[in-house]
């Protein structure tokens, strides 16, 4: 497979997953802004999306109106929802022959709808409906490529992009909750703290999964364990890295067993998550652990690009 084609399939999936993440981030911040300091919640969302500095270069304060517009449709924000969809469609169009009809329809139909979306869609009155549309678009694309693609190189590069992006997103939203939203450690463990952790579960569609696995009161330790170490949770770091390692192994077999630094790093991170215990992670520092995962996931993305896409 040509490096250019691999790159396009990889980034198509990453942009679609990132669009979904930003929508879920808006949903979580909106839920929490009514029970905590609004500016703090929206600042935390901007930090999780990696665009705090650029936002405050344009705006003095973070409010629902300013942050939702910046994360949703600002042309200067490369990770805004509409910009992610635009970039996904550009990559899909470039590799149209590698996509199934269902995949192309999922992306192109969403792009056609997005052309009629303006800033009003990200106002408080319409934000909930817009977020639901974003989540539906993302799930339609995911279902299309999983359910219709031939299990070839194109499929594994698409899946690789999806789960690498998802690992980064899960680590970011957990890190922001623990490190940014609770600077006052006296509040850890109170009712407000539990509501925050529940909002994180809602943002990754994991409330029902949490209740099924733990069958009890929401605990920060259990939430962190579910989203970091539980392999049955589709958005956990463990599940994302299990999928990443499998995709890289499949690609290695397609290339005569040739492996590089990306295979070693993915395997090391996967093993680290497979044998970790949540108590040890909290003891050594949840923030430090998540920051390390974010940095190493970024390194892995660069190693994959260097090995397969240049």
Describe this structure in a few short sentences.
The chain is an all-alpha fold and 310 residues long. 74% of the residues lie in helices and 0% in strands.
Fold and architecture overview:
This protein is mostly helical. The chain has two domains: 149 residues, no CATH class; 161 residues, no CATH class. Helices cover 74% and strands 0% of the residues. The protein contains 15 helices and no strands. Helix 2 runs antiparallel to helix 8 and helix 12 runs antiparallel to helix 13. The chain is globular and about 55 Å long. It starts with a helix and ends with a helix. The mean pLDDT is 90.
Helix content: over 70%
Structural class comes to: mainly alpha
Estimated radius of gyration: 19 Å
Distance between the termini: 12 Å
**Run of helices and strands:** HHHHHHHHHHHHHHH
Identify the overall geometry: globular
Tally of individual domains? 2
The average pLDDT score comes to: 90
Contiguous uncertain segments of 5+ residues = none
How many strands appear in the DSSP assignment? Answer: 0
Number of DSSP helices? 15
The percent range for strand residues is: under 5%
The largest sheet, given as strand count, sense and whether it forms a barrel, is: none
